[in-house]
Structures are given as C-alpha cells and as structure tokens.
Specification:
The chain has 260 residues and is α+β, with helices and mostly antiparallel strands. The chain has helices at 14-22, 45-55, 113-124, 224-231, 235-242, and strands spanning 26-32, 35-40, 60-68, 76-84, 89-97, 103-104, 128-129, 158-163, 168-173, 248-249, 252-253. It has a domain at 14-139: 2-Layer Sandwich (Beta Polymerase, domain 2).
Length: 260
C-alpha cells in the first residue's frame, strides 16, 4: 500500500512560497545541496516560526544548532531545523547574534526548545530571552567558558581525575605530557612550500651508504665501556680454556672410558 507522503519531497517552489510568507522579516534565502535556509530578523524569529508551524505545516522542531564565526560583528548563528511530517520536508531558519544580545526563546511554541536552547547556551554562550531555565546542561557544575567557541582551547583549562588521596573527583590545570605536533594539512602530491625529507636527492644522485666496519673485536664503536666489555673473554671461552684437550691415540681421539 503506497503512503500518501512522498519518499523524497521536491524543493521546487518552496523557497519562493515560504519567502513570500515570511515577508519583511526575511533577510536572505539560500538553496544549495538540496537544502533551503532562511535568514530572518532576530526580533521576528518567534513570529516566523509560529507561522511556519501553524500555516505551512512544519510541525516539528528537530534541532537548534549554533555556529561560531569570530570574524563577524555578530559572531553566532542560531539555526532552527524544522520538519513537516505531512509534507515530508525540511527547512532551516537562522538568526545572528553576539555574546550580549539575547535571542527570543521559542519554548512557548515547542516545549522541546527548552533543552535545545540550553545546549546552545552551554556550548556557545548564546542567551535566550524568555527561557526560564537557562542553565548548563552538558558541562559540569562550575565549568568556565563555552567549549564550542572557536577561541576556546582544544585542551580546555582544567582536567578532572579521581584522587585516591582525597577519595573524590578533583580538578587540576591541564598538563600535557608532550607538545602538540604541528600539522600543515598540505598534500605532498599537490606540492608543499617546504622540502620534504628525501627531496634534496632530486637534483643529484645521493652516494650509497657506507657500512660501518671495525678491525678489532674490542672496537665496537659504542664507546669505551662497550669496548672494554667486548675485550674480556666470554664465559664460553673461559670454559674452553679450563677444559683439558682430549688425548690422542694412534687410532684417533681417546675413546670414552679409556686412559683412566
């Protein structure tokens, strides 16, 4: 039995139709990679989302995501992903803000937005006006900073461990056992700006390696201490020196049990 909803809904005409419905609150529309994104005015966000839910059947708020662009005056984008269950279609609505300007909360439209807004607040520090329970949800109590900001260090500021002495979890400043390796993410096949190991041989033929040899047994090449040890006779040589040589007879070596 065929379902009334299509397996994949077409984007044809959707951007123009919804852009007209959003009206003056619309700032920009982008349709790329099979997705449609609307950037709207921050102050009109709740009105736009409520209209999309009630009049255009985008019933479900799937996710609220944050993005950090440090070079922009309003460095954060807050993205609302909507799903129409009846049309089997998805759209994205975005607003911009900074560290101080709050975004209108949409908890009165979707109750699930409460936890989603707390996640964006915890990771980016974006404030939501109207969320009555805006507190951290992913990081620990007393955590300092917002981990998903581009200026937050990858290692963080503190690390936690269980202390056998204190019998509890303790926080300590981050201590790295070794420095980070430096990666330039350049492909040697595309051509790097520096000389890779081995490239110095391109201009000429490198001489073959000369094997290291020694003339004496006690010349190990590993230093005086090793030379002195090599000069001493081994236990096997000492055992051979202590053992008397077998007597010889006309017929050959002395047989076992003879000459005693």
């Amino acid at each position: 039995m065929a379902h009334s909803a299509p397996a994949i809904s077409s984007n044809e005409g959707v951007a123009a139709r919804l852009g007209k419905a959003i009206g003056a609150a619309l700032i920009d529309t982008v349709e790329a990679y099979g997705e449609i994104s609307f950037t709207v005015q921050r102050a009109k966000l709740a009105t736009v989302l409520e209209k999309l839910r009630d009049k255009h059947e985008y019933q479900q708020l799937v996710e609220i995501a944050g993005v950090d662009y440090p070079d922009r005056p309003e460095r954060f984008e807050v993205c609302y992903h909507l799903l129409s269950l009846t049309k089997n279609h998805r759209i994205r609505v975005k607003v911009s803000t900074d560290e101080d300007m709050p975004v209108p909360s949409v908890t009165h439209i979707w109750e699930v937005a409460g936890w989603l807004e707390r996640e964006v607040f915890d990771m980016y520090g974006v404030l939501f006006d109207g969320n009555t329970d805006l507190r951290r949800i992913l990081t620990d109590y007393g955590f300092q900073g917002h981990p998903f900001r581009k200026d937050f260090p990858l290692t963080g500021y503190v690390e936690m461990r269980y202390s056998e002495e204190a019998k509890r979890v303790v926080y300590e400043p981050v201590k790295l056992a070794q420095d980070f390796r430096s990666f330039d993410f350049m492909s040697p096949w595309e051509g790097a700006d520096y000389i890779l190991p081995g490239d110095e041989k391109v201009e000429g033929v490198a001489p073959p390696p000369v094997p290291k040899t020694t003339e004496k047994t006690n010349d190990t090449g590993a230093g005086d201490k090793a030379n002195d040890k090599a000069a001493k006779p081994s236990r096997r040589d000492e055992a051979k020196a202590r053992k008397p040589a077998p007597k010889r007879t006309k017929s050959g070596t002395q047989k076992k049990g003879e000459g005693k």
